[in-house]
Each structure stands twice: as structure tokens, then as C-alpha cells.
């Protein structure tokens, strides 16, 4: 595979020499001085098919130009109360770093309501965190550790996952599609913790639908996953919901400990960074309030099938739960 990979990267690089200047400019923001590694990411996402990987990257660069993604970090969500509402309902943050220097993203899948702002606000916030990761956090870690760091770790907290989560599937599929098409191979491992039975039931059915390279990245841990995660990161970098043997609390800990909170250092740094960038770009005009609209992609067929499967399995699970509850009630009455 080594020779094939080298040949594929060289072919890819030659093709990229022919793209137009606007795409070359935005490509610099994508590769951050490491074009070869970027070619490798897109090749992996297309099973080392050079033509498909080239089309994927060019499509992504066109998306960036058409949606002004290069300037998205100059467009903070305003007013601050709206951004706080986004942070309180789209539970995600950086809790620290692994011992290898990879940023640790904590995501409250089960308790994110995604109902306090528009779809565009949530999409904008997600892309901003992606861009901040790729343009600020990862280059900083690369410099600090003296080697290229291009991926992160994600810890997914499933506490509170229930039928109401189905209302979020459309938005989550949009966000997942944006990541798949434009930020491939940016997560090295997904650790899933605080798993309720409903997730286990869905996972058994969804797992075979995932591509093999994605399946290999997912590790479902027991309880809060604390002991396993401490093997790759220090206690200070554990997400707040992993610091106990089991269980979680949406707002556990103070603002500086709860990495979802706008008061956490990560979100304070990110928000301050965007406001500074905005003041540099538009020092005279007031910064516009409201969300920055990005074209929302159509989910890939595989993504749509996975979303439908999850929806079906959750309905089945809750329907069976309702039947079991009725049976218990009848037994009690008898």
C-alpha cells in the first residue's frame, strides 16, 4: 500500500496544481502548511480513489468559497445572549488534551436540545468550532509538540438519550454531512460513554451500516469511561461527565469545569478570538447580529439510511417499553 499511496498522493498533487486561484487560496486555510497530509485525508475518505478524492476536495473548496467559510471566524453569533443559548443547547466543548497532544472534544449527545436558536445558528457554531480547531488549536499543538497534529478525540455522552432526540436527527444529519464532505478524517477516535439501553439497541443495528474505517474509530466504554480515558489523558483533561464512576449532569460543576458552558475557558477564548477578528475586518461598521447562513447539504444516501434506522429502532424500543409497562400494570392490578 505504501507505493500505491505515494503514487496516489503525487497524482492528487498534480491535479490540484490545475485548480483556479480562488480555490488555491482557500486550500491554504484547509491544509495549514501540510497539503500532503490533507491529500491523505481526502484519499482515505474515498478509499484511495484519486479521481473521487480530487472531486471531493474541489467540491469542498467551492463550498468554502461560495459560503465565505474563510471569514466565518470573523462573524461571532450576536448578541451574546443568543450565543449563550446556543451553548446551553448544543452541548460541546474542549475539556483538554490527550497525552499525545490531541484536543479532547466533549459532546453531550443525549442532553443537547438544539431548540434555542435557528438551524443556521447551530450550523454556524459547529463550523466555527471546526475552523478554530483546524486553524488555531491544531497548529498550536503542532508547534508545541514539534510534530504534525491534525486530529482530535471526541467523547460522546449519551446520558438522557430518549425518544425526543428524534426531533434533532435532521439537524444532526446536516452537521454530520458537512463534516463528512468538508472535514474528513479529523477525528481519530470516538469514545461513547454513559450508554443507556436505547443506544445499545440502536448501535447493534447501525454499526453494520457504517464504513469499516468509521466502525474502527468507535469505542463504546462502560459507565463514564473514566478508567479507560485516564489511560490516554490526565484527570484534568477528562470531560466533567467522566469524572465520576457513572452518571452525568448537564450542568455539573462550575462554569469553568463544565466544558459545555460559555463560561468555560475554551468557549471564552473562542468567542473572544472571533470578536477580535471581527473588529479587525470591520473596525468601522457595527458587527451584524443574527446568524451567518451557510448552504445546507443534502445528506448522503448512507446518512439518510442511518438516520431512518435510528428513528425506527428508537420507536420500536419505546413502543416495546410502553407494552412492557402496561403488562406490569395489569399484573399489579390482578
Automatic annotation (TrEMBL):
<dbReference type="Pfam" id="PF00650">
    <property type="entry name" value="CRAL_TRIO"/>
</dbReference>
<dbReference type="InterPro" id="IPR011074">
    <property type="entry name" value="CRAL/TRIO_N_dom"/>
</dbReference>
<dbReference type="InterPro" id="IPR036273">
    <property type="entry name" value="CRAL/TRIO_N_dom_sf"/>
</dbReference>
<feature type="domain" description="CRAL-TRIO">
    <location>
        <begin position="79"/>
        <end position="239"/>
    </location>
</feature>
<protein>
    <submittedName>
        <fullName>CRAL-TRIO lipid binding domain</fullName>
    </submittedName>
</protein>
<dbReference type="InterPro" id="IPR001251">
    <property type="entry name" value="CRAL-TRIO_dom"/>
</dbReference>
<dbReference type="InterPro" id="IPR036865">
    <property type="entry name" value="CRAL-TRIO_dom_sf"/>
</dbReference>
<dbReference type="Pfam" id="PF03765">
    <property type="entry name" value="CRAL_TRIO_N"/>
</dbReference>
